[in-house]
Design a protein that fits this description.
377 residues; mainly alpha; Leucine-rich Repeat Variant
Length: 377
């Protein structure tokens, strides 16, 4: 058993033990242990409450702590102490990748009476406080900071940054927005699509290159934008994506239906085990995957429809293929239904979903073809 345990920051605060709290601010016995991080966070808060200026330099150093909440606590403590020696360090944290740290630092700077020296500092402050209209008012000086914020750890901040960038018809924003499509939420992807579409001709060259990207989110969304712009430059590149898009339509429908089936099964099991946290988490994950697949299917279908006439022949070919699959599938399904008399077994349900998949694929293809034919008329 060790002779000494972790520092007791509560006792140190009660005794106003500044030196002990400053030492606790760097406590790191086990490297990544949560208890270590909690001690450092609480030490920073205690120092901020005591308001002893001897703590300012150690708190400035804590603004670089690996733990985000320790950095937040240090920024708050500095603002509460009110020592202007920390202004330079707090300005630097306005570039932190964590929204809460930036916001806490901006508020601390306001307490210290700091005013931005130029447009770039005004932009950083406005981003930190999520004042997006103030960001836009700064014009082109806002572009580079907003591009950097596309990598923020907060999804809402990334989406707000993308929307703000849409106010600038600046060629610098195209490539970073394309990169930001990777692993983004469906809402974020929709925002980026709309911004890139609004860029018009300026985005075409980069979008054509992005069609060759291996990331499915990148090339599907860039295909949507190119199809929506419908520029002659993009026609040849888009035609090469028609068959892959049809495959994605079929794959997305399958993924959506199978994940929805998985959600139904988990929900059924949860009726008997409502407190099963693992099952609940699995259901939540599958729901998100199903919804993401559903939206991808819509995006792909919209893209095929926007490409226009070149899509009709290959899409009709695939439609014929799936219609040939539907008859035997429904016949065998009917035989199984009669044989099983409603008994729910895995084989029957799987085959039932396979028939659903075929019917849904056919429905989406017919919708796309009808839209294409109406446009030609």
């Amino acid at each position: 058993m060790p002779l000494f345990g972790p520092p007791n920051t509560e006792k140190m605060r009660a005794k106003r033990n500044i030196n002990g709290l400053i030492k606790a601010l760097t406590y790191n016995k086990d490297g990544t242990d949560e208890e270590d991080r909690s001690i450092r966070r609480h030490a920073a808060i205690c120092l901020g409450e005591i308001k002893d200026r001897r703590a300012v330099e150690p708190l400035i150093a804590a603004l670089k702590d690996k733990d985000e909440l320790t950095r937040v606590s240090a920024a708050w403590a500095i603002g509460n102490i009110g020592d202007t020696r920390a202004v330079g360090a707090l300005i630097m944290t306005l570039r932190d990748s964590n929204k809460e740290i930036r916001e806490t630092s901006a508020k601390a700077l306001a307490v210290l009476g700091w005013q931005p020296a130029d447009a770039k500092e005004r932009v950083l402050r406005a981003i930190a406080l999520s004042k997006w209209q103030d960001v836009i008012k700064e014009g082109v000086d806002a572009v580079e900071p907003l591009i950097a914020t596309l990598k923020d750890s907060d999804e809402k901040v990334r989406e707000a940054s993308a929307k703000a960038l849409g106010e600038f018809k600046d060629a610098r924003i195209v490539e970073p927005l394309i990169v930001a499509l990777k692993s983004s939420s469906s809402d974020m992807q929709a925002t980026i699509r709309n911004v890139l579409f609004g860029m018009g001709q300026q985005s075409i060259e980069h979008l054509v290159v992005a069609l060759r990207d291996q990331d499915r989110d990148v090339w599907i969304n860039t295909a949507w934008v190119l199809a929506a712009i419908h520029d002659s430059q993009a026609v040849e590149a888009l035609e090469a994506t028609i068959n892959p898009l049809i495959v994605e339509l079929e794959t997305g429908i399958r993924e959506q239906i199978l994940k929805e089936e998985a959600v139904e099964r988990i929900a059924f099991n949860l009726r008997d085990h409502p407190a099963d946290g693992q099952l609940s988490r699995m259901m939540e994950i599958d729901q998100k995957i199903a919804e993401r697949a559903r939206i991808r299917v819509e995006v792909v279908r919209e893209t095929l429809e926007a490409i226009g006439e070149p899509v009709i022949k290959p899409l009709m070919g695939r439609l014929e293929f799936w219609e040939e699959q539907l008859g035997p599938a429904e016949r065998i399904l009917g035989e199984q239904e009669r044989a099983l008399e409603g008994v729910d077994i895995m084989g029957y349900v799987s085959f039932s979903k396979e028939a659903d998949i075929v019917r849904t694929i056919i429905s989406h293809m017919k919708t796309a073809l009808n839209s294409l034919k109406q446009r030609d008329e």
